[in-house]
Specification:
The model has no long low-confidence stretch (mean pLDDT about 95). The protein has 3 domains: about 90 residues, Fumarase C, Chain B, domain 1 (Orthogonal Bundle), CATH 1.10.275.10; about 220 residues, Fumarase/aspartase (Central domain) (Fumarase C, Chain A, domain 2, Up-down Bundle); about 80 residues, Fumarase/aspartase (C-terminal domain) (Ribonucleotide Reductase Protein R1, domain 1, Orthogonal Bundle). Helix content is about 65%, strand content about 5%. A hairpin with a 7-residue loop joins β6 and β7. Keywords: Amino-acid biosynthesis, Arginine biosynthesis, Coiled coil, Cytoplasm, Lyase.
Length: about 450
């Protein structure tokens, strides 16, 4: 063989590899076979296929599915994509009837159907995982409605919270994520099958029938838009990215809380590792990985947005780049939710460390200002500056403001010399937390009410 021929063959092989999608879109084999069975049943109903032909096609497709799932199916570049791989093997099994399956459809609407089915199925399963994670947050929160933790702004100690309340913030985040997947599922639950290449088909088909068989609400209404649309893929990528952002935020707190400086929580040994060189260390590897994997799902979202931004109507080969990022992001969120659920379920909470940390940073300073406004009828700005004096005086005594006696408070500022002893109660950390009893606030009473709302939602 000449060098030119070798080069030509090599280039042809490279082009085959470049053009083919079979090595990743084989992930869609179940959806492809499901769609093909529904299509064959509809063609039979419409008289395009005989009953014997349809039964042979359906039986053959189920055999292909069994071969794939048992590992006896060989995927090759020659078949290019999952659609041709299935159809080619079907024709090998049943002969001529297999060649009739592609009547009244195109690979354009076929891949749109397969991919949408996959996204819809994954939206439901991710929703289920999110609900389990929320349940665990609520269960742990219910054990800590009186456990004090310093609430922070700008990573500075701000006001006392209860730890259950803090955890419910994440329960709320993940509930919004749940609702996003739910909304996307409803918005995208329409069948592309029957749109054909871009303009519909002259064959006598019934799109309502295939839509119903595949579990969609109804068919899509515009063939050209349908075959070129990947909004459903972008939506699941955005939803996953938002969920991973929330996972990253709680992971960051877990890393912080488990440090020697905080020691608020201790993670199960199953979700932490020792250093390879420092045996005394226990590294929060799992939350660090959860935090790090957020970047890759962001990349998958940006990648598909970039692919789609310049595409003319209708279908273009560029959209072959739509799947790998979605597959990767789905696998990432699935394992991340599974692991985070167990991390939260098994973490050990150091109640004493949390409560001692509340005595650093004068968390009840705002309560002093509020007391002066409410009980002494002072303008807030005046109360604010008096409170600064009390904080400075407490610092001079190496005390937290919550630890001051009434005499010490009176000595801090001339305008406090006759202040009521009732003030000492206002500066108590737990009283301060429970004083924030407004709807949505951190008091134990409000936290318990929020837990009840979550429990009712979880049980529906």
């Amino acid at each position: 063989m000449s060098n030119d021929q070798i080069l030509k063959n090599t280039n042809a092989q490279i082009l085959d590899e470049f053009n083919a999608s079979i090595m990743f879109d084989k992930e869609l084999y179940a959806q492809d076979i499901k769609g093909s069975i529904a299509h064959s049943q509809m063609l039979c109903e419409q008289g395009v296929l005989t009953k014997d032909e349809q039964e042979a096609i359906e039986s053959g497709l189920l055999q292909v599915k069994e071969e794939i799932e048992s590992g006896n199916f060989e995927f090759t570049l020659e078949t290019e994509d999952i659609h041709m791989a299935v159809e080619s093997r079907l024709t090998e099994i049943i002969g001529e009837p297999g060649k009739k399956l592609h009547t009244a459809r195109s690979r354009n609407d076929q891949v749109a159907t397969d991919f949408r089915l996959y996204v819809q199925e994954k939206s439901l399963s991710i929703k289920s995982q999110l609900k389990e994670l929320i349940k665990v947050f609520v269960e742990v929160a219910n054990k800590h409605t009186t456990t004090l933790i310093p609430g922070m702004t700008h990573l500075q100690h701000a006001q006392p919270l209860n730890f259950g309340y803090h955890l419910l913030a994440y329960a709320n985040m993940f509930k919004r994520d749940y609702e996003r997947f739910e909304s996307s599922y409803e918005r995208n639950n329409y069948s592309p099958l029957g749109s054909a290449a871009l303009a519909g088909t002259p064959h006598n088909i019934n799109r309502e029938s295939t839509s119903q068989k595949l579990g969609f609400k109804s068919p899509t209404t515009h063939a050209m838009d349908t075959v070129s649309d990947r909004d459903f893929a972008l939506e699941i990528l955005f939803n996953i990215s938002t969920s991973m952002m929330h996972i990253s935020r709680i992971s960051e707190e877990l890393v912080t809380w488990s440090s020697y400086e905080f020691q608020f929580v201790r993670m199960s040994d199953e979700y932490a590792t020792t250093s390879s060189i420092m045996p005394q260390k226990k590294n929060p590897d799992v939350p660090e990985l959860l935090r790090g994997k957020t970047g890759r799902v962001y990349g998958n979202l940006i990648s598909l947005l970039t692919v789609m931004k310049g595409l003319p109507l209708a279908y273009n080969k560029d959209t072959q780049e739509d799947k790998e990022g979605v597959f990767d992001s789905v696998k990432t969120i699935e394992i991340s939710l599974s692991i985070l659920t167990e991390v939260i379920r098994t973490m050990i909470v150091n109640v004493d460390k949390m409560e001692n940390a509340c005595k650093i940073g004068h968390l009840t300073a705002t309560d002093l200002a509020d007391f002066l406004v409410q009980k002494q009828n002072m303008p807030f700005r005046t109360a604010y500056y008096i409170t600064k004096d009390v904080v400075a005086y407490a610092n001079s005594l190496n005390k937290d403001i919550s630890e001051l006696t009434i005499d010490e408070i009176r000595n801090a500022n001339e305008q406090l010399k006759d202040v009521s002893e009732e003030l000492v109660m206002y500066l108590d950390l737990r009283n301060s937390m429970n004083a924030r009893n407004s709807f949505g606030g951190t008091s134990t009473l409000q936290t318990v009410e929020q837990i009840k709302v979550f429990e009712e939602w979880l049980n529906n």
